[in-house]
Amino acid sequence: MATKGLKDLSESFKIYCQDDNSRILVEISSSGVVERIRGRGSCFLTLSHPEEIVIRKSAYINDRTFMVGADVAAVDLSRKLINAIRSSSATINIRLTVEL
User: Fold this and answer.
1) Is the pLDDT of residue 1 over 80?
2) Which of 21, 6, 2 is nearest to 62 (CA)?
3) Largest CB tally within 10 Å, which of 4, 32, 35, 94?
């Protein structure tokens, strides 16, 4: 079960994500399998959803959007990762990094 939504991110982290020049990296790992998704921030991000974090390849933004212009969509994630997170007892770690 997830423990954070976008609204729970620190204010300083949000400020960096809301910069049009920011680059964002999401690392998803489970059972030794790691996937990396790269995208960018935007001054239009609200980062306010209480439960959801959505990564978008497009430039569409709503309150669930964490980053836009992602280089990977859900369909592109490896079968190894999908199989690793399929179990209800799987531990999934998600690391969010932003840089200007």
Assistant:
1) no
2) 6
3) 35
